[in-house]
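Figure 3 (text version): structure tokens given as input.
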């Protein structure tokens, strides 16, 4: 919309009484707006429609892992490439002109670098929630986290201009949240509760939520694209018998959503947002690391929670099988449907074609590169933990 605002600014609005009116009640050239606002316009505008492009095309941008800060002399400052990356991102998005942008988890970090790591100051520290001002301090810290990550030039303008669907992963709460039994002490759960309250204010307040309370999974259908974004953290508890990455409620809602997709012939693409990819690393390393003693994996860089995050990790495979069973049934009913799993988390982009047994055609797995997080595995670690060849 193109608006011309008056130089006088906003007028003082007079008191007025609500009443039903007819057009005939006003004199020539008088409008209801004139009557209510004393004839002083605040703005005028022209609404222009681009056309019917979105009936046949939905342009989607996906990013994840936005952690632009480093610690210098005890202070959090922007990393050396952060501004360059975000300015370039803003230009690319403007040129592409998407219909929607996804933030696929780790959209802000409560524990990103030493100077900005506030969640470690309360995680596993008993008593903070009962201390005077403790809850207020944590609430303010989570709110500042989003403001300081999203107010940077390049990202700020795209968030103002384009619709966004945002979800969370662990770092909006605390590294690895839900992967260890120790996450669920009373004080840690209180921290999570505050993180979720603030996430409702920032992350989940604008997306197409399936439910207004509880799990924050989101779903929509726009033109040829259907999208379902899982919430992998609200109900996550790896220590449960058999593990749990999403709740039965989400799985039931996903099954019902796929029924709607099956009945919509105009939908040609099903996009599944999972924050962490279906397939992650070699089964041997995944099983070994997920089951190894925490003290051992902490010495190796604290990888156990990362390995437990994967949908194909030992404790999460039951949920993955349920999701794939639902997708398989849908693809048999809609054999021309293209299914794409979109995730983040790995800091490096990749794409694979996956053809599970019994599926009428392959599905695709696309992992986004990190937006600003520049931390990666060493070359040796990357070779050891590389994905099996997917045929």
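Below: residues designed for each position.
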């Amino acid at each position: 919309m193109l608006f011309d605002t008056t130089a006088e600014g906003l007028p003082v609005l007079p008191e007025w009484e609500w009443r039903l009116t007819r057009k005939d009640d006003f004199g020539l050239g008088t409008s209801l707006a004139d009557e209510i606002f004393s004839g002083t316009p605040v703005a005028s505008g022209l609404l222009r429609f681009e056309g019917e492009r979105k009936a046949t095309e939905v342009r989607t941008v996906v990013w994840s892992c936005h952690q632009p800060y480093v610690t210098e002399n005890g202070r959090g400052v922007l990393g050396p490439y952060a501004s360059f990356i975000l300015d370039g991102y803003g230009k690319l998005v403007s040129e592409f002109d998407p219909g929607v942008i996804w933030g696929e988890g780790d959209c802000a970090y409560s524990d990103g670098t030493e100077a900005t790591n506030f969640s470690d100051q309360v995680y596993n520290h008993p008593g903070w929630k009962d201390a005077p001002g403790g809850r207020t301090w944590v609430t303010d810290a989570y709110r500042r986290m989003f403001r300081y990550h999203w107010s940077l030039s390049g990202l700020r303008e795209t968030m103002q201009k384009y619709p966004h669907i945002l979800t969370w992963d662990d770092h909006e709460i605390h590294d690895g949240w839900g992967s260890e039994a120790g996450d669920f002490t009373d004080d840690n759960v209180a921290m999570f509760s505050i993180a979720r309250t603030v996430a409702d204010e920032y992350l989940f307040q604008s997306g197409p939520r399936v439910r207004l309370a509880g799990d924050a999974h989101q779903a929509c259908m726009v033109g040829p694209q259907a999208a379902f974004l899982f919430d992998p953290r609200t109900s996550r508890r790896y220590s449960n018998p058999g593990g749990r990455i999403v709740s039965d409620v989400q799985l039931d809602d996903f099954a019902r959503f796929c029924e709607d997709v099956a009945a919509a012939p105009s939908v040609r693409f099903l996009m599944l947002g999972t924050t962490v990819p279906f397939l992650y690393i070699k089964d041997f390393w995944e099983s070994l690391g997920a089951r190894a003693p925490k003290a051992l994996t902490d010495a190796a860089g604290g990888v156990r929670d990362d390995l437990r995050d994967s949908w194909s990790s030992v404790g999460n495979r039951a949920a993955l099988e349920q999701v794939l069973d639902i997708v398989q049934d849908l693809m048999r009913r809609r054999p021309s449907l293209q299914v794409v799993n979109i995730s983040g988390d790995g800091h490096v982009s990749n794409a694979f074609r996956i053809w599970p047994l019994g599926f009428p055609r392959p599905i695709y797995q696309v992992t986004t590169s990190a937006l600003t997080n520049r931390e990666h595995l060493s070359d040796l670690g990357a070779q050891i933990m590389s994905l099996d060849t997917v045929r």
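Residues 134-150 form the longest helix (17 residues).
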